[in-house]
């Protein structure tokens, strides 16, 4: 029986090659995209799921309660020791300190190797909390010692080649010689903590006295605390008992901390603390489902339309005694066969585009990723669901056709699924396409708004150089002097970070002038030399710039600072005192500058002060005239290497760095563009097939109209008017839905574009034009055909 069904199904596919091709191609594109989206979602859902005792591992994070709540993936350096000694909630507690792109130099036979690597300073218990297996180690050395490290097998291969890594040494950041005492398995790509070099925490005192200390005066996102809790702990109770630590260790600060326990499985998905937005996974999954639905709608529409041409076949089978049940399962098998071929092609499509997909989303998926049990199981489930979803309704319609009507050729629209049903399905396709087009336009508009808007500072033709930590001020001044002598270089400044940078951001509580208490808000410190304002073209609106100094005695603040204080005039600030960092900074306000975006558009403009602090400088900004960039860049590199010959030269353009802050939005935009195009293409495939059947049924009517004097444009209008009405109806349905979701998305940004009315007109217009192009060729061909031939055909 099944063999017979397969033969009949295969013959029907061969008999209607064009429509079989349309169905297979539409489903294949839907399958391919759904599989890629599943790989993307599965990759992120597997983050940090390889650790033992996963349900008991937590990261301790901080809610900073001031006039607003800010979220930091860190705690003060002294927290871990207190949590370990004063409480009995945890089996293990460990701090780590993360640094990215640190220079690592080989020694001896490996002296030619100079690499930039992510380095993690870790306390010994860290490896008892997270599952980073140690393959082998030196038995006579311990991770509690200073200047020792565990390294991954991947880094060992890069640095030491085929030679044994244990016992070897390397130099970290041109400072300390570190010995390798352990070899770790490579860290999985779906791990939140990444690094190839894990240095003992005792070594940190030579690199960051603040992170190594036990102070409670501040926090940095580079310092993180992980804990393995004892079984059956009440998280809410623990967080409540941690509240008194604030008054005990931070009684003078208005920045009120709330220490929270964040499950390891939640770290990757909590965007408040630097994780990804989990809504993206749901959005992409929903888009994948939309594509499958559109492809299934194509199949249903074309299949029900084919009922006219297959009616005699069905009538004969029923007269010969074939039951409704048999006809239903025959059609399901045909659908399954088409879906199976489509799935094979979809897998091939996914395989071909996988490298580009990895590049777009910065993934490391391999060909083997497609052949896992999860992916194949998902593909099989998709095949079964699509086969039944797409095949059931046409199968039921075919099975219920009356043989007498079928053999006499008297079937009506109602007998083959009804005109209303097809209109509802086509309208659904159009509505989905319009929503995706609207999303594409809004996301693109927001990204363009963020990148091209006036940020309050210059970002064009400015190159940012990473300078070695804790360098001598004399060397830095010498480098600035050499760079300023390069033709085309107009200004240079040493700073902690550039304007608009969300990284290296240092916030502190402040006390203004003679006010008895610290303010309820914190202020962002942009530590830099006196050339900062000129290099970034920050506009001074009151007072003057600060003078050069080795310590902070004068500061410049922005307009927002005056607004936060409730002052009516910026001149009121001039000459007033400012105390920050729990009293270690005492300075006079000498100038006020215009507001600028000190972070990105997701955050509002906050209060800022700018002051010189030579020990905090991480970067050197060089402003060029942009006339001969390549020559100027080469000259900058030569001057830099003259001053710092032992350090790797690293630079980036400020405008590219600003744009990179919206990388997630740009990826979202790329994905939406791709899927919008595919949704429209798959819909057009269905429309092409549907209009073919429509015109075949209208052949006699078109011939009669032409004989009676009907013009081509009139006949064309008859063919097109139904589809135009459906597009307008779809636009009316999709527009409010798209507005609701995109308006909610824009609320993530403190500064965002508006959803203009023309966006919906453009979306509907784009779909309208594409639809007209899809069906007009066949409609014009039918309208201009010889009417006598058409009448003879029927």
TrEMBL record:
The keyword Disulfide bond does not apply. The chain crosses the membrane at residues 21-41, 280-302, 327-355, 375-403, 424-444, 674-695, 715-735, 755-775. It comes from the Bacteria. It is found in: Cell membrane. Its main location: membrane. Keywords: Cell membrane, Membrane, Transmembrane, Transmembrane helix. Residues 20-240, 431-627 form the MacB-like periplasmic core domain. Residues 286-401, 674-787 form the ABC3 transporter permease C-terminal domain. It is a multi-pass membrane protein. It holds the Pfam family MacB_PCD. This is ABC transporter permease. It comes from Aquimarina rubra.
């Amino acid at each position: 029986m099944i063999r017979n069904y397969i033969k009949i199904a295969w013959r029907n596919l061969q008999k209607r090659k064009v429509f079989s091709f349309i169905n297979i191609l539409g489903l294949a594109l839907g399958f391919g995209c759904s599989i890629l989206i599943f790989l993307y979602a599965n990759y992120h859902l597997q983050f940090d799921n390889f650790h033992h005792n996963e349900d008991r591992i937590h990261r301790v994070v901080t809610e900073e309660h001031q006039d607003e709540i800010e979220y930091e993936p860190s705690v003060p350096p002294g927290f871990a020791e207190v949590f370990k000694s004063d409480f009995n909630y945890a089996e293990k507690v460990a701090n780590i300190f993360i640094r990215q792109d640190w220079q690592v130099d080989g020694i001896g036979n490996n002296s030619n190797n100079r690499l930039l690597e992510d380095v993690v300073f870790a306390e010994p218990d860290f490896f008892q909390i997270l599952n980073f297996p140690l393959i082998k180690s030196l038995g006579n050395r311990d991770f509690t010692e200073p200047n020792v490290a565990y390294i991954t097998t991947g880094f060992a291969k890069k640095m030491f080649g085929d030679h044994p890594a244990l016992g070897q040494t390397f130099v970290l950041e041109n400072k300390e010689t570190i010995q390798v005492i352990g070899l770790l398995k490579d860290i999985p790509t779906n791990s939140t903590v990444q690094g190839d070099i894990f240095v003992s925490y005792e070594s940190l005192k030579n690199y960051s006295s603040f992170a190594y200390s036990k102070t409670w005066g501040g926090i940095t996102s580079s310092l993180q605390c992980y804990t393995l809790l004892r079984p059956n702990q009440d998280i809410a109770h623990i967080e409540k008992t941690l509240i008194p630590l604030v008054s005990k260790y931070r009684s003078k600060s208005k920045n009120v901390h709330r220490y929270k326990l964040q499950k390891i499985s939640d770290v990757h998905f909590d965007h408040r603390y630097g994780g990804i937005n989990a809504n993206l996974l749901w959005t992409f999954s929903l888009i994948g489902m939309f594509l499958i639905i559109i492809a299934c709608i194509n199949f249903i529409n074309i299949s029900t339309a084919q009922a006219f041409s297959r009616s005699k076949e069905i009538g004969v089978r029923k007269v010969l005694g074939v039951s409704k049940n048999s006809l239903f399962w025959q059609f399901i098998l045909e659908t399954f066969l088409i879906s199976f071929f489509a799935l094979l092609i979809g897998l091939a499509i996914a395989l071909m585009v996988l490298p580009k997909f990895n590049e777009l989303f910065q993934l490391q998926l391999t060909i083997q990723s497609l052949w896992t049990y999860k992916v194949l199981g998902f593909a099989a489930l998709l095949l079964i669901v699509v086969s039944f979803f797409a095949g059931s309704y046409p199968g039921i319609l075919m099975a219920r056709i009356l043989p007498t009507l079928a053999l006499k050729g008297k079937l009506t629209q109602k007998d083959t699924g009804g005109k209303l049903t097809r209109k509802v399905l086509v309208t659904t396709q159009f509505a989905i396409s319009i929503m995706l087009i609207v999303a594409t336009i809004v996301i693109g508009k927001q990204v363009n708004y963020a990148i091209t808007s006036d940020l309050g500072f210059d970002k064009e033709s400015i190159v940012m150089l990473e300078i070695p930590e804790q360098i001598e001020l004399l060397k830095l001044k010498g480098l600035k002097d050499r760079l300023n002598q390069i033709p085309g270089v107009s200004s240079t400044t040493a700073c902690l970070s550039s304007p608009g940078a969300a990284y290296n951001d240092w916030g502190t509580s402040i006390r203004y002038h003679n006010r008895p208490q610290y303010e309820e808000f914190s202020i962002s410190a942009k530590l830099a030399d006196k050339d900062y304002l000129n290099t970034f073209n920050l506009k001074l609106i009151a007072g003057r710039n600060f003078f050069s100094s080795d310590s902070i005695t004068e500061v410049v603040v922005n307009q927002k600072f005056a607004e936060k204080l409730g002052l009516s005039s910026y001149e009121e600030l001039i000459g007033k005192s400012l105390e920050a960092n729990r009293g270690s900074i005492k300075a006079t306000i000498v100038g006020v500058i215009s507001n600028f975006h000190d972070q990105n558009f997701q955050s509002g403009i906050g209060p800022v002060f700018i002051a010189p602090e030579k020990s905090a400088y991480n970067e050197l900004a060089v402003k060029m005239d942009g006339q001969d960039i390549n020559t100027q860049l080469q000259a900058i590199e030569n001057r830099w290497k003259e001053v710092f010959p032992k350090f790797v030269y690293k630079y980036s353009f400020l405008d590219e760095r600003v744009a990179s802050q919206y990388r997630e939005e740009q990826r979202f935009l790329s994905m939406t563009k791709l899927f919008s195009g595919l949704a429209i293409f798959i819909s057009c495939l269905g429309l092409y097939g549907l209009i073919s059947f429509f015109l075949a049924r209208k052949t006699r009517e078109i011939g009669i109209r032409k004989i009676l004097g009907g013009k081509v444009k009139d006949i064309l209008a008859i063919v097109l008017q139904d589809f135009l009405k459906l597009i307008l109806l779809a636009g009316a349905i999709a527009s409010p839905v798209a507005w609701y979701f995109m308006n909610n998305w824009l609320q993530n940004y403190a500064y965002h574009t508006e959803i203009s009315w023309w966006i919906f007109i453009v979306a509907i217009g784009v779909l309208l034009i594409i639809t007209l192009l899809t069906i007009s060729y066949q409609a014009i061909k039918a309208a201009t055909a010889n009417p006598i031939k058409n009448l003879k055909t029927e």
